[in-house]
Specification:
The chain is of the alpha+beta class. It is built from seven helices and five strands. A hairpin with a 6-residue loop joins strand 3 (73-77) and strand 4. The radius of gyration is 15 Å and the shape is globular. The two termini are 27 Å apart.
């Protein structure tokens, strides 16, 4: 059902969710640093994205909200931050990753693919974890262990 709903651009994310329907990635100072939302959380996160877009960013011009924002998947959050990580599922940015406000306002994807996003999260966590606006973990984020079930 999700593959039909979101199309080919969502295939890499759906593959991940087939094995791991949500995950807490990076514990920073005892708190989750990045949460990959479960499929059951996508709609609520998307509602938050659209409410922010309609009530804050484009409150004066709601018709200017990019079409791709309506169909994007809000797949990740940095707890305590207002922006959500989006997988764009249609249009010229299909398959690319954007932050729900800053990147969409600029109409510029931050990562060209989900693989590039996760590579950045793994190799340079500060590049991902510090870019939402409200949260800043500093530049000294170095993974000390990799754990999984």
């Amino acid at each position: 059902r999700l593959a039909t709903q979101y199309g080919e651009a969502a295939a890499p994310l759906l593959d991940i969710h087939a094995d791991h329907d949500g995950a807490v990635l990076f514990i920073v100072k005892g708190e989750p640093g990045f949460c990959m939302a479960s499929v059951g959380e996508w709609d609520q996160l998307k509602t938050e994205v659209m409410e922010w877009a309609q009530q804050v960013t484009w409150q004066e011009d709601p018709e200017e909200i990019p079409k791709y924002l309506h169909t994007a998947i809000a797949f990740g959050v940095i707890p305590g931050d207002s922006e959500k990580w989006l997988l764009i599922t249609e249009g010229e940015h299909a398959g690319k990753i954007m932050l729900s406000d800053g990147d969409v306002i600029e109409d510029t994807p931050r990562y060209d693919s989900l693989a590039e996003f996760f590579a950045a999260l793994l190799c340079d966590p500060a590049q991902v974890l510090n870019c939402g606006g409200y949260i800043d973990y500093g530049d000294d984020l170095v993974p000390i262990a990799y754990r999984h079930d």
